[in-house]
Amino acid sequence: MMIKMKKKGSTGCSTTTTMMIGMTAFAVSVLLYLIHRLSTGFLFNINDSISSPSALSKLTEKYQGIFKSELIKEKTHDDHDLMNIIEKQPTYEEHQPKPKPNQFIIINCDTSHDRYDLCILNSTTTLDPTNSTFYVDNDSSSVITTPPNKTIHKIRPYPRKWENFTMARIKELTIVTTSTKIDCQIQHQAPALVFSAGGYTGNLFHDFNDGFIPLFVTIRSAFPNGIAPILVVSHCREWWLKKYAELLRQFSPYPIINLDNDSKTHCFPSTTTVGLISHGYMTINPTLLPNSDSFLDFRKLVGSAYDTKTSHYNQQAPSRPRLVLTSRTGRSRVILNQAEVILLAKEVGFEVSVFEPNEHTSLKQAYKLINSSHVMVGVHRAALTHSLFLRPKSILIQVVPVGIDWLAETCFGKSAKDMGLEYMECRINVNESSLVDKYGKDHLVLKDPKAVMKDNLSHTKDIYLNDQNVNVDLVRFRRYLTSAYKKAKIFMDEL
User: Fold this and answer.
1) Number of helices and strands in the chain (H, E)
2) Residue-by-residue DSSP string for 79-103
3) Is 218 left (phi over 0), alpha (psi -120 to 50) or beta?
4) pLDDT band at residue 180, thresholds of 50, 70 and 90?
5) Using CA atoms in the order 332, 335, 337, 339, what is the torsion angle rounded to 10 degrees?
6) What does the alpha-carbon distance between residue 130 and residue 262 come to, in Å, rounded to a whole number?
7) If you average pLDDT over residues 95-100, what whole number do you get?
8) How confident is the model at residue 88 (pLDDT cuts 50, 70, 90)?
9) 230 vs 188, 210, 274, CA distance in Å?
10) All domains of the chain, ordered by start, with CATH?
11) Does the first or last residue of the chain, that is N or C, have fewer Cβ atoms within 10 Å of its Cβ?
């Protein structure tokens, strides 16, 4: 690093003295920090001229922007100031290398996000499934990588990066640059998109939250011009391929490459994307997508997969609004007085269908039932993911057990509204929870769930999700059903 000082005799000395006196603690710390980083080999090609206090101020602001640092203590002008700077994790954009003329980035890895990592390979790439390695062609010296000078990258392409236990079970893939020609057994003309169907796959909520919604976001981000990629999938099990065959075809017309059992090398031109982008739980942020795609666009894609227009439910218009009740047997989040709830719904005026899905439930048949219904009712659980099959303006009533208000809104409330549904949330009272029989209504578990969960986050799952059933107050619930009935009638009249 070169810092040029202009010499003007005594005037120059006076200027220098004024500058040193005028330095803030932050400026000194930044300069010391730069010297420290230079001594450890972290070099910046900087040639700044400091000829006045204002010039120094500008330089200070420049490095403040680069390092995003904070000074904890003021008025300390010694080497210990370095200990008072908290260096935040750099964002991806801050440390992007600047390609020089005739240079391009062949491996561009973004590891700055909490939920996922993503690598874009901008050169001919050869996949060897036997060692889970992608060889990126580097037959030119006019290329760079991100992070800079890193030629080997490791990535687990599943968007739950913050969960160490989960990510440890996701196959790690290797990306390397090579100037050696790799034998290519299968040559493809389309780009590739690589991800894992491991983790919590098998739970319907996670199949969409960690799988298909991020897949939609990634394709609409990486291929905004409508090009369909070849899907390359690890933990690609046969039951998954069969269950989601119709939906997978909406993302790609090409046969899926199974990383787990393929032994042939595959070559892809130009661009390969490794990883899935997640915007959050059941969320699509249109402002982050090139064409401003929304959750409603994802819902339309789901409809394209399953809407055959041949269901007997659709052959004639119903005389009454249809209500589908998601049912569950087991030890948690069960409606204990379900029979009474069904009778009540019929009394209000609904035609009622009971839907109790399991791992063998056909999504095509589920779509036919739910898409032809006007109202869906269910206690918070993974089965409410089927609300993706409801038409816009349909009504979703989510029955929310004690202690999981935030989960209910995060997992299904927001997505329902994003799909254009009429969303109603029925939060049960303490006396409707089975926990009152176990703990008593005055126990902290029921009086202050937030305090209980703050003390131990595992209580969210152990107590409020896995050990709680619901006995619905029929008088109070009638009001929800009556309101839903009125909305459903309006919806029917508009069809």
Assistant:
1) 18, 22
2) GGGGGGEEEPPPPTGGG---PPTT-
3) alpha
4) confident
5) -120
6) 7
7) 42
8) very low
9) 9, 19, 12
10) 2-87 (no CATH), 95-293 (no CATH), 307-494 (3.40.50)
11) C
Matching residue, tokens 């939609």: 216
**Owner of token pair 């303006």:** 393
Cis peptide upstream of residue 147 (ω within 30 degrees of 0): yes
The rounded mean pLDDT for the chain is 82
Name the residue with tokens 């509204």. 417
Question: What percent helix, strand, coil does the chain show, rounded to 5?
Answer: 40, 20, 40
How far is it, in rounded angstroms, from Cα 495 to Cα 489? 10
Output the DSSP codes for 97-155.
--PPTT-EEEEEEE---SS--EEEE-S-EEEETTTTEEEEE---SSEEEESTT--EEEE
359: left (phi over 0), alpha (psi -120 to 50) or beta: alpha
Angle at 477 between CA 474 and CA 479, to 5 degrees: 120
Q: At what angle do helices 474-494 and 338-348 cross, to 10 degrees?
A: 50
Instruction: Tell me the C-alpha distance between 412 and 205, whole Å.
Output: 10
For residues 67 and 89, what is the distance between their CA atoms, to the nearest angstrom? 9
Say if residue 223's pLDDT is above 50: yes
Residue 194 CB-density burial (10 A; 0-12 exposed, 13-18 middle, 19+ buried): buried
- pLDDT given for residue 458 in this prediction: 86
Which tens digit of pLDDT belongs to each residue from 430-463?
999 999 999 999 999 999 999 999 878 788 899 9
